[in-house]
Amino acid sequence: MIEFSSAQADLWLGAIFWPLVRILAMVGAAPLFSHRAIPLRAKVALAAAFALAIAPNLPPQPLGDALDPAFFGTLARNVMIGLALGFTVRIVFTGIELAGQVVGLQVGLSFGGFFNPEMSDTDNPVANFVSLVVLMLFLSLDGHLAMLAALQRTFDVLPIAGPLSMPVGSEAIVRLGAEIFSSALSISLPILAVMLLLNLVMGVMARVAPQLNLFSVGFPLSLCVGLLLLLLFLPYMGPPMRAEIERALALWPVR
What we know:
By secondary structure, this protein is mostly helical. It is built from eight helices and two strands, in the order αααββααααα.
């Protein structure tokens, strides 16, 4: 008869539970994995499958007593590591989506809102389109695979239990968050400059010809010029987006 003790069961459960906690935290914060279009059961199943795949390569860690303070300390440690990994990439997506919000506001499409399942909010069409573009860029760069590789690497750099010492400093994450507005401005600056010039021209026309109905002429003109500029500058918006995504992924060592 095959027998096993409670200590063995505790060790087996801990070998799956602790990696699953860190992976679920990353899935809940990282772009693409946390997308609302993906069912919750599918997210949990993906995290469980990845935990089962990497569990044999990790040192055994008992589950421990749920009422022990050390249990909550280890739980908070792994949740923080997973959230930090997903948050570094989420910041880049937020900056790029902010660029789309600014462009849509200047073009005049802010009155038309569409629900963005990624942000659980209403965005203008340009911001929604830019969100899809950066998501496709993330997939084309194998960003999802790089995040999974970085997650696996964190188990070597940051064991399941022990003192918390993040390889990505808090200052680096805060600095990356502060660059949301600068990255959004650098991506949307060409379109914003042309739209500013267009508004100045229309302002001069309104002063030269007061009988000109600026509201009936300016809005369609701004809309047409803005969409044309978006069509012309869209190929040039790809490299800055790519650079921002690569910089966020480079913060976490994957080798």
